[in-house]
Every structure is written in C-alpha cells, then in structure tokens.
Amino acid sequence: MTKEQNTIGTVGIYDARALGLPKMILLGLQHAFAMFGATVLVPLLTGLNVSTTLLMAGLGTLLFHILTKGKVPAFLGSSFAFIGGYLAVAPFIETEVNGQIIRTPNTELLPYACGGVVIAGLVYVVLAALIKVFGVNKIMRFFPPVVTGPIIISIGLILAPTAIANCQQNWLLAFVALAVIIICNIYGKGMVKIVPIMLGIIVSYIVALITGAVDFTAVTSANWIGNPVPLSGFAKFSVSSIISIVPISLATMMEHIGDISAISATTGKNYMTNPGLHRTLLGDGLATSMSAIFGGPANTTYGENTGVLALTKVYDPKVMQIAACFAVFLSFFPKFSAIINTLPVAIIGGVSLILYGMISSVGIRNVVENRVDFTQSRNLIIAAIILGCALGFTGINGLTFMVGSYEITLSGLAVAAIAGIVLNAILPGNDYVFSTEEKHDELTFKL
C-alpha cells in the first residue's frame, strides 16, 4: 500500500483501502464516535430533532464530499455557532410544574429559525462564487499563516474548557480514556496505533459499566425504528428570522477557512487549491441549507474529526464517508442512537481533551512550518490580538450589538478572525504570497 509524507515528514495513510474493508469500517466508526457527542448536543440545546440532526450530518457530509470531488477528509456535524440564533428566534417555552421549571422546544417558531439558516447557508455559495471568479490567491492574501495559525490555535483552546467540564463528571473515566489513547498511540503497533480513540472509548466504557456509571433509561424508552424527518420540522421563512441569523454566517465562514487550513496543515495537502476553497465553501453552505430545509441544524466542518486525523494519521476521505453512512443509519434507529448516547460525558471529555489539544498543536505547527517571523512587531500584534479576542470574548459569551431593532452576537472566534484579517490588511509589511504547491513526497512501504 502507499503512504505519503506530510509537510513535516510524518508518514500518513492517504489510501486506506489497502487496510481492508473491516479496518476501514472500524476507522469510520471511530470518526462517528468522535462527532456523535457534539452533534447530538446541538439539538438538545435548541429543541431540534436528534434523528434529523444525525441524518443531515451524514447526508451533508456526503454532499460535501461529492462537491469537493472526494478529496477533503472532513466530517460535517452540527454547528454550535448558530445556537444563539436559534434561541433568539425560537426560545424554549418555560412552564412551572409542581414548583419546577419545565423547558419545552418552541415547535412553532423553530421552523422559522431553520429558514434563517437556509439563507445563511446560501451566503457561503455567494462567497464561493466570488472566490471562483477572482481566484483563491487574491482571497487567501487576507489569510496568511500569521492569521490562520493563531485562529486554529484558538479553536482548540476555546473548545478545551468544554472537555474539562465533561471530565469533571467522572475523572476516573476521563483519565482511563485519555491514558488508553496515549498508550495505544505511542506504544501500539498496526491497527492498535490507528484506532486509539475507539480503544479508549471501549476500555473506559467497560470501566463505566463495572462502576455503574452507565444509565440505560433512555434506551428502554427509545423506539427501534423512527422517522428522522418529521413534517412539522420543515423550514419556514420570515424577514425577522433571516435578519437575525444570516449575519452569523459571516463569522462561520471565517471559521470554515480556519478549519480547512487546519485539515490542510494536518494532512500536508493544499485543499485551498485542490479541490479549492470555493468548493469546500460550496459544500459546507449547501449542506447547511439542505439540513435546515428539513429541520436540522447548520452544519460545519468538525474539529473533533480533524483531531482524529492528527492523532491517527489516516487521511483517506473515504473513512469520513463511512462515518457519514453510520450517521445516516443511526438516524433511522433511535434505539441504537440511545445506546451510543449512554456513553458517559466524562469519557467524551477525556477523548475531547486530547482531540482539542491536537487542533491547537496543528495551529502551532502551521506557524512554525511557514516560518512566521515573530521578531516583526506586526506579526506579534496580529497574533496577540487574535488570541486575546478569541479567548477574551469567548469568556463573556461573544460580542453583542444592535443593528436597528435586531440583536446580533458574534462569537469570540468570529471577533478574533475579523480583527486578525483587518489588522493583516491595514498594517504595513503584508508580503505573504499564497502557495498553490502541495508539499509531500510519496513513499512505498509495507504495513
């Protein structure tokens, strides 16, 4: 089989077919586990349907791979960036029952929030068209490594507190999951080294069963077969919901560029050029619009799965396609989804801790490989502002301002990205030239 070197010489697997179908299915299942917790959390926080969310994550990922010619190893899961928009348009209905506040989804207004997300996804299409017309080189001049590197670092650092919060639920399970992943990745051979996350989940889940930390209540009440797309969830449109939600897409498009930069840095392939940023944006945007039409959340390229790529060094997009098929399958069988959902959040926290850290490490590597000169004041200032805004504004739940009578909130990462792009454009010394070359050499070897 063939392996290739990424930009720092680390050998990675770009064609997993030689591993055999059973191993590829196992790798796909590993990515499905990595995305599951965060993907189903979004509908739980917004009131959307979990089965619809899983279906649209799977179909959205497959659509993305079709539009990107099956070249980019990305998984599209539920976007957290739009949660504020959903809750602004369709806040939960609170009722008091026996002295307790019960929150129920606002099923009447949720379709209108989905309508706003449909239009937000189409904004991606507009930017993709502009990149196609004017060329990626002119666009990427605004996104040099001094901007994308700190943004990628910020993605992992922003997500890290969530992992710690989950670990706090049961530090034993979190530590077991983390320890197994590290041991398998450092000392493992063959498939053990390639699927450390799966092994970490399995071993820690066994410990959870032994210690009585698994709750099967939801499994017993879940149906075996269900309709993942209820008719009541289809998108509806109103001017107010569109105005409230569409501005969020300006931030998530910046996040998309950061994510694709992270995947490119991880694999050593220049996806900005081949298949092209216009194609990845088109895939992300249309996947988001398709999901929202049927009552699902906005989709986005998932950092969790990028972390899996960095850890396992298996970069074949076909593995992501297998994970997408798992998501589609689970959407029709609520019982299986409920079984996976019995995974204690502490295990998810332990796994996420290393995956989120991997994302930040990729950002550091991106800066180092591109030899960003931090003896220059402009580079220091840009990086400092990006990191400060990303972590600072995230700590106060973003930047909120009014446009007319509408309230708009930008995430800390969005504020950081915008600040970094603007500073890079206006400060003197921007001599960055975007390279269209892919830097990796092919090697042959035996597994």
Automatic annotation (TrEMBL):
Pfam families: Xan_ur_permease
Leader sequence residues: none
GO cellular component entries: plasma membrane
InterPro entries in the record: NCS2, Xan_ur_permease
GO MF annotations in UniProt: xanthine transmembrane transporter activity
Keywords from the UniProt entry: Cell membrane, Membrane, Transmembrane, Transmembrane helix, Transport
Bilayer-spanning residue ranges: 24-42, 48-67, 74-93, 109-130, 142-164, 170-187, 194-214, 234-254, 319-340, 346-368, 380-402, 408-427
Topological relation to the membrane, as annotated: Multi-pass membrane protein
Source superkingdom: Bacteria
Subcellular location as annotated: Cell membrane
Family: Belongs to the nucleobase:cation symporter-2 (NCS2) (TC 2.A.40) family.
Protein name: Uracil-xanthine permease
Lineage of the species this protein comes from: Bacteria, Bacillati, Bacillota, Clostridia, Lachnospirales
